[in-house]
């Protein structure tokens, strides 16, 4: 079983923090961080552990026991709000190497179609990482609200700056209308393999 020191170091590296940056967030010296990580200091007070977990953006259980809660995919439905709204949903951070060419700020949410729901570009059992946004960033797949329903569309920007939306049925792109709004950008898509 991994001890506390190596877990602190692993979580610090995952958070892309150096010792000095973590020390500033926790309110200790970077030498103290070194002592914690090496195991030279084995006892850390509860107040410092809480500050450490907050600085590393992880649950206290991940720090103490190494238990990492993995977020379950949220169920996407055509009707209603985006699945991350109105719930305590845990976002994920994707490594950039998993999503080459994508630009987004903040967390994404893992999404899969709810049972009985079908979406263009997303079949039952597929997973999508969607970053909430109402701003067009670059061409690609977006979750949009169209006539009160959530749908996935390929969104492009025309020469005059106008947005166009297209489903995966090969239909002609439809122009932006006042009843359309961007809800999220698909930054990753994983298809379920069929054997």
What do you see in this structure?
It contains five helices and eight strands; from the N terminus they run H-H-H-H-H-E-E-E-E-E-E-E-E. The chain has 195 residues and is an alpha+beta fold. It folds into two domains: 4-64, 434 Repressor (Amino-terminal Domain) (Orthogonal Bundle); 74-190, Umud Fragment, subunit A, CATH 2.10.109.10. The protein has an eight-stranded mixed β-sheet with strand order 1-2-3-8-4-5-6-7, with no helix packed on it. Helix 1 (4-14) crosses helix 3 (30-38) and helix 2 crosses helix 3 (30-38). The longest helix is centred in the first third of the chain and has 11 residues, at 4-14. The radius of gyration is 21 Å and the shape is elongated. The two termini are 37 Å apart. The relative contact order is 0.12. It holds the Pfam family HTH_3. Residues 8-63 form the HTH cro/C1-type domain.
Features:
195 residues; Umud Fragment, subunit A; 5 helices; alpha+beta; elongated; Transcriptional regulator; DNA binding
